[in-house]
Amino acid sequence: MKKYRDYMSKYSNTYKGERRGDQMQEKIVKVIIGSLFHDIGKVIYRSGGMDGRAHSISGAEWVARFTQDKDIIDCIRNHHYQEIKQAELEKDSLAYVVYLADNISAGADRREIEGEATKGFDQNKPLGSIYNLLHGRNGREVYPVAPMGKDINYPYDPDRKTVPVSSSAYAQILADFGDGMKGIDFSEQYVNSLLELCEAYLCCIPSSTSLGEVTDISLFDHAKITAALASAIVLYLDDWQREDYRLELLEKGQNFYQENAFALLSFDISGIQQFIYTISSKGALKGLRARSFYLEIFLENLADEILRACSLSRANLLYSGGGHAYILLPNTAQATEGAEQAIDAANRGLRELFGHRLFIAHGIQACSANELMSKTEDPESYSNVFRSVSALIAARKLRRYSPEELLQLNEEAIDQEGRECAVCGQAGNLEEREGDTVCSNCAAFTDISGMLIKKDIVFAVLKKRLEAPALTLFSAQGGVQYLHPLSLAKAKELLKNRPEQLVRIYSKNAFHTGLSLATKLWLGDLAAKNEDGSLKTFRDLAKGSAGIKRIGVLRADVDDLGTAFVSGFQRKAEDKNRYRYVTISRTASFSRSISIFFKYYINEVLEAGENHLLPKKGDKNLVIVYAGGDDLFLVGAWDEVLSAGINLRRAFKRYTGGALTLSAGMGIFTDTYPISRMAKETEILENCAKDNSYAGGEKNSISLFGMEFDKGLLVSRHTYDWDTFEKQVLGEKYAGIAAFFDTQEDYGSSFLYNILYLLHQAGEDRINIARLAYLLARREPGPNALTEEKEGYAKFSRNLYQWALVKEDRRQLITALILYIYSRREEKEEK
Predict the structure, then answer these.
(1) Please, which residues have CB within 8 angstroms of residue 615's CB and are 6 or more apart in sequence?
(2) Rounded Cα–Cα distance for residues 72 and 29 (Å)
């Protein structure tokens, strides 16, 4: 890393994205906090605190219990037009900023003031599912009022189940929220903690309970976007030295809506597949998880570095996951340069560490408030902002490197003895480990892998390395940072004794109240362990399989998610107001919902799944290798992986109300099969699932086993839509086969193999159907057999023969037979 440090030492001297002065930074912190709590009075109102006052007044009084800061309280007390136009505020009061940001976030110029009068509102109206309006739907599913917990908060159909919404539920949330606030300071170090506290308690509460509005935006998502917009507005106006907020945002607010005050930044990490999966099988599972984790942390840390360079908070992080992120910036040269230089610094560091394997492409598009609300002459202006940054990213991927950067790549160190890393094949920075030659990167991944599966740890980003395993990250200013897994006690010790060394702390699936600089990350971290606490190997997982000792690999992701992000909330073309639901708050709520499912709820889905292909006892033999923003890479005992895929699909369908689907590919391999081939072959199967069309739809499928030759072409013979696979392949064919063979000892594996062979050949020559009939007739029970045996065989053979006659039933029967043979096959048969 020496060349990187030398370069960045010079580079940082020209860096213009320095943080703002203390006074401006304090102003930004205040406007973020004021935005986050501007509607807290709604919770008070719905909890039974109806005293005839507007929720802005009761909310300001509640927040005053925790801070006496007048600027923050003014933001909460005066965020509606009727209030703020009469308030005697200074012309640079932040209340004007929150007022306008609130209107943009809501997607309307003004809204009725909930809590001032009961007419027109129903305080018992629950939060609607964000998926109710997706893809032209008119769903009615709603959530119960509750804080976020480990269990998935599935939506309910109100026609089938009453969802209680009571003042006592709101009162409990308010009380718990207040308890959480006691451990937090209203300061810059705790802004992200305040944001997470709001998410924990306000994510299942509707922003509005107006009888005339849909209620699919949570109070948290509305407050978060308000905070993002407000902080961007302050920075934008400061850049233009426009300090009269009353004039700019209230008296001339309509003009401000038309200004390109904002900018959408998107960046995407290329090379993820190659980086994670192109490694040898030696210690492969540990290496896979460590590399996957590194990319997740790298993405989050880069986003945080950009936000910090631009004087923003994680409220402005609209989405992160799967190697991709969206950030809302102020449209200023400082923000643009800060973001671009942070990305350039990260790319430089990646080239030093991994050569050409990883690359970050980005795009920035300026936009106005009207565009964010789809209120321009071009009705697709909001969607076009996202399309524009996607086009910029695609263009950058085609011209990754400058001539100087290409020279740097060609100067990659080569070992003089011709050695290369036994894991990734890299030829530089090599060392000997337990008889193997490994590079420093793979050594670091190995060293840190054991810490990742521990529950009570946090991840500290430090300016200087400790005497412990660490991964390398990069600051926006060009410095090298070190990621250390630490116990919570060790992290608190560092905060107390060496706070200047701490950049930030990431916690895993847990909120640590009172721990400053902390950000909670949702991580799918389910991992099968041995009795000594170590991660199970591929061989260990294979041994846990029922029947054949193989591992299963499942790759799955959401179908057409990109389209859903860009245009999913548009209504039908004939609808005159088809863009009325296309708002930034709805986009943010949708992206957060998807992300939390695959990053957090996935743990519960796989741990507590109800479907089991075969009865199992003991702990799960499953390991999440990668769970990004919308996709999953899962390994484990083959039968458990198949069941996990079914559970995943069921949970996702219930979670989204059927508005979105996912497709998956599943392969079955020996534990010594190269991991790169596992990944590639399963990716091919996943693509086959996405290419699948069936009666009533497309995609929404699973593809199994592998590719086969048919008339010179590679085809997937075992691809089905999920319903067909569950109901007909498993529920009918597999169940019928199991019902017979599980109760019979006179019919061995050879009988199954003969049936399977004839079914395979039946497609080419119908004579094999006759041969199958002959085989079934020849194996009928003798005259002395019990009646129930005769009846059982007659039912089995009749069904089998009828299925064999119909092409689609025969295909399903072949798949079911293969699965059943796998479930019965013992190790001795393999030998």
Answers:
(1) none
(2) 9
DSSP state of 210: B
Domain count, the chain: 4
CATH of the domain at 384: 3.30.70.270
The answer to whether the CB of 92 falls within 8 A of the CB of 245 is yes
Conformation bin of residue 620: beta by default, left when phi > 0, alpha when psi is -120 to 50:
beta
Residues 186 and 263 in one domain: no
Residues 621 and 616: their CA atoms lie apart, in Å, by 10
Cα separation, 543 vs 639, in Å, equals 11
Are 623 and 749 contained in the same domain?
no
Give the separation between CA 562 and CA 566, rounded to whole angstroms: 6
Contact 198, 223 (CB under 8 A): yes
DSSP-assigned letters across all residues of 562-606? HHHHHHTT---TT-TTTTTT--HHHHHHHHHHHHHIIIIIHHHHH
Question: Which helix H or strand E contains 672, and what residues bound it?
Answer: none
Do residues 675 and 635 both lie within one domain?
yes
User: Is residue 32 domain-shared with residue 115, that is, in the same domain?
Assistant: yes
646 and 668 inside one domain: yes
Do residues 487 and 353 touch, judged by C-beta distance below 8 A? no
* DSSP-assigned letters across all residues of 312-364: --GGGEEEEETTEEEEEEES-HHHHHHHHHHHHHHHHHHHHHHTTS-EEEEEE
Residue 478 lies in a domain: no
Residue ending a domain, among 412, 428, 453, is: 412
- Its sign, for the CA torsion 399, 401, 407, 409, is negative
Please list, residue by residue across 266-281, b when 16 or more beta carbons sit within 10 angstroms of its beta carbon and e when fewer do. bbbbbbbeebbbbbbb
Contacts made by residues 781-790, CB under 8 angstroms, sequence distance 24+ = 781/746, 789/744
As a whole number of angstroms, the distance between CA 251 and CA 100 comes to 11
- What the block records as the tokens of 401 is 């490197």
Same domain, 697 and 817: no
Query: What stretches of 404-454 adopt beta strand conformation (E)?
Result: 430-433, 436-439
Which amino acid is present at 801?
Y
Phi then psi dihedrals of residue 267, to 5 deg: -135, 150
CA dihedral 183, 186, 192, 198 (to 10 degrees): 70
Is residue 818 a contact partner of residue 705, using CB atoms and an 8 Å limit? yes
**What's at 283, amino acid-wise?**
G
Specify the pLDDT at position 515. Answer: 66
- Domain membership flag for residue 151: no
User: 243 and 268: one domain?
Assistant: no
Place of tokens 């007739």: 777
Q: Check: CB of residue 86 under 8 Å from CB of residue 109.
A: no
Same-domain pairing of 341 and 195: no
- CA 352/CA 7 separation, integer angstroms: 11
pLDDT recorded at residue 615:
67
Residue 419 CA to residue 433 CA, distance in Å, equals: 13
**How many residues does this entry show for the chain?**
831
**Rg (Cα) of the chain, in Å, rounded?**
29
Q: Is 241 left (phi over 0), alpha (psi -120 to 50) or beta?
A: left
Query: Is there a domain that residue 133 lies in?
Result: no
Please say which residue of 222, 256, 290 terminates a domain.
256
Res 112: pLDDT: 44
* DSSP classification of residue 718: S
Residues 6+ positions from 91 with CB-CB distance below 8 Å: 243, 244, 245, 246, 247
Q: Which regions in the chain score pLDDT beneath 70?
A: 1-20, 50-52, 108-119, 281-283, 411-416, 513-516, 574, 611, 614-618, 827-831
Domain range holding 799?
Answer: 728-830
Can you give the pLDDT at residue 17? 39
**C-alpha torsion sign, points 725, 726, 730, 735:** negative
Look up tokens 């094999």; give the residue. Answer: 768
Residue 146 lies in a domain: no
Distances (CA, A) of 36 to 58, 568, 815: 15, 27, 53
